[in-house]
Amino acid sequence: MAKVIGGITTSHIPAIGVAIDKGLEDTPYYRDLFATYPPIREWLNEEKPDIAVLFYNDHGLEMWLDKKPTFAIGCAPQYENADEGWGIKPIPPLTGETELSWHIVNHLIENDFDPTVCQDIKVDHGATVPMTLLWPNHNYQGIKVIPVAINCERHPMPKPSRSYAFGKAIGDAIRCWDQDAKVVLLGTGGLSHQLDGPRAGILNAEFDNYCMDKLVSDPQELCKFSNVELIEKGGAQMVELAMWLAMRGALGEGVPEERLRNYVSPISNTGVGVQLLIPQD
Amino acid sequence: MTDYKMRPVEGTIHFDGAQATKGFNFNKMCFSFNNEEARQAFLADPEAYMERFKLSEEFKQALRDKDLNKLLELGGSIYYMAKLAGIFGWNMQVIGGMQSGRTTEEFQAYLESQGRGKTTNG
User: Where does the record place the Extradiol ring-cleavage dioxygenase class III enzyme subunit B domain (chain A) (predicted)?
Assistant: First the structure.
């Protein structure tokens, strides 16, 4: 049977992709952030997961406002990246895992989640920045990827509790897949930030750390928040906690081991959290 | 009727159905900026480009004025406005300052004042 071996939370802000392109990893501004990743890469190298289920939100590359799914799952053999309009270099395509994608879709619909099913989508920085951070120099040929998109762009967005439940259903699907495969979960985005309006620039390090604490020990506490409460506490884009909650739901109900945590703020306009969680079974 | 109205948050316009309806043409124009030829076409003749996407006079004027808060108020989405900002070479700190009434340096200092020193590593 397939096994979920761990969950990683990471930011996906474009500025990180630009910093990688420009080789700024060891500058004072970025050093603390990039120092987080080598131990996670070592863990990935040791564990060698076969598949990554990657929770992200599309920021207007593939899923624009004309047809914007609330939840969407990639079922494609390959995912290309493309020009997003402001300067990160597109990266080589990610390889998909159609058999597990379809298994997840079938399991979800049997269990009352009805996502949009995507056989041909491009993925944006929400997916590519995490892949580049975790497998630098485009060295991700050894891992297959299943992108799962959650609408964080236009209200109404799924309630935090619903993103958690959606992730939980995906985790159940992975664990009942009758193939021997090691699966790592990636919850991307966040934490506190607001890009728009007179309130742009708000950060909340205390709340970010609270969220990281509860993500490990008691994610149900985070599921009690409404999206507007998240916006009040951590800015309009704090709603990206959705992907962290989906990842945590998929990880399973027991309290995982928190192998690693880092928090750096600000990077660009964002409080950046990174965690490596190992399920205890 | 189901209560789904989001309570107001100061300094923030929730990008909801009503805003998305008002701003559709503008956001559609900004979505086109994923393409380099489109960016060049806009830069070559912004008025013609805005006309092509049937922008209202209010939207056109806000864009001429580079009034980002007005664009948000009219129905702009920050995700698409970021693509517009890219054309002008404005990053997130530049537009953060423009929207919050700060210079870029002041905006960066504001970010730093809430963040640095709160780094944890472990």
Answer: 8-272
